Amino acid sequence: MGAKGHRKHRWSHKTKSILKAIRSLLRGRATQPDPIQWTFTAQKTIRGTYRVYVTALITYPWRLYSGQSAPEGPLPTRVEFEESAAVQLLGKPEEMGMFKEEFDTKYQVRTRYYSSGVSFVQEVWLAIRPASAKGRVIFAACTEKQCREPEVLEFQVALNNIIPPGEPVNDRRAP
Prior knowledge:
Distance between the termini: 53 Å
Number of strands: 11
Number of helices: 1
CATH superfamily: Thiol:disulfide interchange protein DsbD, N-terminal domain
Low-confidence stretches: 170-175
Shape: elongated
CATH class: Mainly Beta
Structural class: mainly beta
Order of helices and strands: HEEEEEEEEEEE
């Protein structure tokens, strides 16, 4: 017995290795920030409609695949808006950003991706005021070597007290 009547516990080498690996994984998960930061904003247009901006800021070396990428490749980013009696969608979301296009040897297809940022812009018309645009983003952050698990991020943007046309878009960060 050790000092003060306590028994020393001896851990096997294998047990110590497993505990060390678990601690390392937990520490890495707790300190690893999300590689994609999302913001959700809206701006009133001159025509009286609204543009809803779903914007991703991407941390190097991560990337976000375009919704225009081949479905056989990495998960294309999808932005889905809910249509309601109050909010009517005008067209489909447009991607605004500088994309890169290349052949992906892992998937054997051409891919399009964003490596610094992209905005998905949806124009809407309000039949009832005030209203909110609601939806979700389905995406997976990837590097050249790996992809994180796909994520679904739900959002809501109030369309009252909106910035007038020509004013800079106010930034409202995701919760």
